[in-house]
Amino acid sequence: MRVRLLSIYLMALAVGFWIARVQADDALADASRTTARDLSEKLTELPEVFRKSVPESLDDLRAMQSHVKQLMPQLSAATVAVRVGPAHGSGVIISSEGLIMTAGHVSGRPGKVVEITLSDGQQVSGITLGRNKPLDSGLIRISGSRTDWPHCPRSALDASKPALGDWCIAMGHPGGFQKGRSAPVRLGRIALLGPSLIQTDCELVGGDSGGPLFNMRGEVIAINSRIGQPLEFNYHVPTAIYHKDWDQLVQSEDVKGHSGALLGLTGTADSLGLRVTKVYENEPAALAGIRIDDILVTLNAKRVTQMNELIERVGEHMPGDVVTLELLRKGERIELEVELDMRWD
User: Fold this and answer.
1) How far apart are CA 230 and CA 203, in angstroms?
2) What is the pLDDT of residues 304-339, one digit of tens each?
3) What angle do CA 178, 181, 184 make, to 5 degrees?
4) What CATH number has the domain bearing residue 156?
5) 36-61 per-position pLDDT tens digit
6) Structural domain total, the chain
7) Which one of 7, 79, 163, 325 is most buried, counting C-beta atoms within 10 A?
8) Nearest-angstrom CA–CA distance, 210 and 91
9) CATH number where 280 lies
10) Model confidence at 110, in pLDDT bands (50, 70, 90)?
11) β-pair type (185-193, 198-200)
C-alpha cells in the first residue's frame, strides 16, 4: 500500500527543502573520530516528532532539523562518490575496513578498478566485488590496509526494519563529487515496501545511484537504485538483499536471481509462443489489456515459448520498467507496452 497522503507529502517536501541546506563541512574533520557504534548509541532515542504522522508545529520542525544536523558529520563522511570509467555514481562505507555498498549498475562486474572520492576530496582506489545484477546490489572494497575508515552501520535483519511512513534520508553525489559541496541531503518518507524494493519520496537525480538511504538513527537501510517518474518517487534496494547475498558478494561472485518484477499472467506452450491461460486481476498484464488465449510471442524482442522463459525474461527487468510485448490475438499481431509491478510474496 502506498503512503500518498498529500499533507504528509507536502510537509515532508517542505522540511526536506529546508534541511537540504544544512551543511556538514565544518564537522567532517570530527567524523573520522566518531565510530558507527558511538553514533548508534547516541541516537537510540529519537525525537518524538518522528513518531507523529506529520510535524505539528515549528518546534517539531526545529527538532527535526537539530536531529538531522546531529547525524550529518558521520553520514556525510561515509557517503562517497564512485567513478567507474566515465560513469559517476555514489556509495556508502559500511565498515572500518573500507567495504562500500553501492548499486549493482554502478559497480558493474567484479574485479574492476574504481576511483573513490571521499567527503574531504581525497581520492583513493578500490576494486569491485560481487553484485546481484537483477536486484541491482553491489559491493566495492577500498584498496590498501587502512582499518579506520569513517563508516555507518547497515541495519540489522532483526531490528530497525523500515516501515511504511518512516522518515528517511537519501544522500549521494549527483553529477559526481563537487569541491566545496557536501553530499546533498534529501529528507522524505517510505511510500512503498517490497521484498526487493523500497520506494520513497526523497528526490534523486543523476549520480545519486548507489548512494545510501538512512533511517533516522543513521543506519543504512537501502541503496539508491533508480530515479522514478515523477522524480520525487524513487527506488532503493533494501539492505536485506545485501544480507541475503553477503557471502557471495564479499567473494566477488556474480549472483544470479530474479528481480522481483511481476507481469501477472500464466500460460502454456504453443507452437507460436506462449498461450495465455490466466490473467490476474489488477496486475500489469490485465491493466495493459492482455486477454486469455492471446499468444505472447516476444518480450522486448526476446522470444517466449515456455512459462519458465517468461519468468526469466521478466526477471531481467526491475519493477517499474516498461516492456514491449508482441502478441497474436485471433491471428492479428499487436504490440502492448506494460509497466511491470512488484511481486509481494
Assistant:
1) 9
2) 999 989 988 998 888 889 999 999 999 999 999 999
3) 105
4) 2.40.10.10
5) 444 444 445 788 888 888 889 999 99
6) 2
7) 79
8) 5
9) 2.30.42.10
10) very high
11) antiparallel
How does DSSP assign 92-106, residue by residue? EE-STT-EEEEEHHH
At residue 218, the pLDDT reads 93
Residues 267 and 242 in one domain: no
Q: For residue 118, is it within any domain?
A: no
Pick 157 or 341 by higher pLDDT: 341
Cell of 190: 517510505
- Stated as kind and residue range, the H or E segment containing 241 is helix 239-250
CB 105 within 8 A of CB 209: yes
Let me know: does 207 contact 176? Beta carbons within 8 Å.
yes
On the 0-12 / 13-18 / 19+ scale of CB atoms within 10 A, 239 is buried
- CA distances for 45 relative to 40, 50, 60, 299, angstroms: 10, 10, 15, 50
Amino acid in position 251: Q
Task: State the Cα–Cα distance between residues 218 and 155, nearest whole angstrom.
Answer: 9
227 and 337 both lie in a single domain? no
Q: Work out whether the CA dihedral 106, 111, 112, 118 comes out positive or negative.
A: positive
Does residue 67 register a pLDDT over 80? yes
Closest CA to 337 of 267, 293, 280, 290: 290
Quick one: which H or E segment has residue 309? helix 307-315
Residue type at position 63: A
Q: 173 and 234 share a domain?
A: yes
User: Within this chain, do residues 161 and 203 fall inside the same structural domain, yes or no?
Assistant: yes
How many other C-beta atoms are found inside a 10 Å radius of the C-beta of residue 145? Answer: 6
